[in-house]
């Protein structure tokens, strides 16, 4: 039967075949957070399942404000060149590191 929490009727579920490493991690996190294993599992489920709704209009306003603060507008070619330059630089760094290891 379900229990009670915060004025709601709660249901009971059983989870089978939990891998040992996940079980140990849950126990460790529960201990760290001073919670029972059951309450830690409920907390994890609530965090994962109760994703806050996004206010698209608010996000758009914030993006517009951020964009208005940018003094220089980069062209597509500037962005492309910068990305390629960064990738090329990373490749040379990788090669240099490999040579140092030899």
Automatic annotation (TrEMBL):
Residues 76-102 are annotated as: Disordered. Residues 12-47 form the Antitoxin FitA-like ribbon-helix-helix domain. It holds the Pfam family FitA-like_RHH. Signal peptide: none annotated. GO terms for biological process: regulation of DNA-templated transcription. Residues 76-91 have a biased composition (Basic and acidic residues). Coiled coil: none annotated. This is Antitoxin FitA-like ribbon-helix-helix domain-containing protein. The lineage of its organism: Bacteria, Pseudomonadati, Planctomycetota, Candidatus Brocadiia, Candidatus Brocadiales.
């Amino acid at each position: 039967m379900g229990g009670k929490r915060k004025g709601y009727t709660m249901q009971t579920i059983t989870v089978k075949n939990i891998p040992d490493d996940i079980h140990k991690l849950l126990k460790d996190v529960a201990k760290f957070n001073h919670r029972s294993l059951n309450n830690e599992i409920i907390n994890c489920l609530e965090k994962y399942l109760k994703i806050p709704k996004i206010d698209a209009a608010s996000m758009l306003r914030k993006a517009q404000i951020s964009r208005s603060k940018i003094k220089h507008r980069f062209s597509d070619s500037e962005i492309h060149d910068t990305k390629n330059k960064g990738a090329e630089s990373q490749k040379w760094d990788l090669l240099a590191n490999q040579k140092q290891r030899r």
